[in-house]
Structure formats: structure tokens, C-alpha cells
Amino acid sequence: MTEYASRQFSAIYERYRVVVYYTALRVTRSKEAAEDVMQSVFLELMDNCERTGRIPDEVGGWLVKLAKYRSLDHVRSESRTVPTEAPEVHAGDAGAAAENNVVIRSALETLSDEEREIFDLKVLGGFKHREIAKILSSNPSTVRWQYAQIVKKLKPLLADLN
Questions:
Q1: Do 160 and 128 meet the contact criterion of CB atoms below 8 Å apart?
Q2: CA atoms of 95 and 124, how far apart (whole Å)
Q3: pTM over 0.70
Q4: Do the beta carbons of residue 119 and residue 111 sit within 8 Å?
Q5: Contact predicate 33/74, CB 8 Å
């Protein structure tokens, strides 16, 4: 990989790593699995760039979709395996932060999968409405309206945060 290509890849990684991670985490519900998926997604991007000599068009959408598919593959493969040991149980945080986490999680669980994807792309990924529209093959006006509805839906649920 040339120095220029390496810099480009680093910039893409820095721009999209959070949204790829949270896309994977939302599907796998496991930090370790999300990290594995994120790594495989960026390795596949690197392989694709070396093979084709270019970065895919709409690389953000490409990465998010790939993260979703790889996460689903991971969940399917995990459901076929029998666990050999009990999962670790960690004590949760105490106090107001833990209460806030519960409130935020329960508020986010009220969102449909489509709403959650728009929310994650906008808030965690920092994408603009038109970028989200391209990723989801939708109209920017529709995405803008859906995001406004999501905010309206979440506002009363999050009003009592400490």
C-alpha cells in the first residue's frame, strides 16, 4: 500500500470506525463481537482497495452495509454453536450514571430498527441527512422527516435525565 493510500485509509478509518462499531454492536450485542466485525470490515475494505485500486463509491454506506451483513453472519454462526463456558457477569455502574443508562437504553428500545439505524447514523456516525439517505437508498427529505419524528419520540422519554 502506498503512503498516499495508507493516509486515505487512515482517514476513512477515523471517519467511520465509530459508526461501523455501533452498527455491529447493535446487531451482535457484544463488544468483543462488534470489535471483531469492525476489524473484518476494515480489512475487507483494505483488500477491496488493493484488488480494485480504488475506494468504493459511497464508502460510508458500503462500510455500514458490510458491517450489518458481517454482524448478522456472526450472530447466525454464534446461534449454531453451543457455549462451552458460562458468560462473565459484570456488576453495573452505581448511581445516577447507571440510572441514566437504563433510561437511555429503554428509550432507544422504543425505536424501530429503521429508526434506530437513522438515529445511529446521525448521532453516532455524524452523517448528514443526504448521506444517510444514500446509505439507506431513501430520499433526504424523508430521512429529515423521520429523524425529526425520532427526536420528537425520544424527547419526552429522556426529559427526566439527571
A1: no
A2: 25
A3: no
A4: yes
A5: yes
Q: DSSP per residue over the chain, as a string?
A: --HHHHHHHHHHHHHHHHHHHHHHHHHH--HHHHHHHHHHHHHHHHHHHHHHSSPPTTHHHHHHHHHHHHHHHHHHHHHHSPPSSPPP--PPPPSHHHHHHHHHHHHHHTS-HHHHHHHIIIIIT---HHHHHHHHT--HHHHHHHHHHHHHHHHHHHTT--
Please name each of the domains of the chain with its CATH number: 1-81 (1.10.1740.10), 97-162 (1.10.10.10)
Q: How confident is the model at residue 162 (pLDDT cuts 50, 70, 90)?
A: low
Q: Are the C-beta atoms of residues 68 and 23 closer than 8 Å to each other?
A: yes
148 and 41 in contact (C-beta within 8 Å)? no
Cβ(19)–Cβ(120) below 8 Å: yes
Across the chain, mean pLDDT equals: 82
Residues 62-91 have pLDDT tens digits of 898 899 889 888 887 876 654 545 445 455
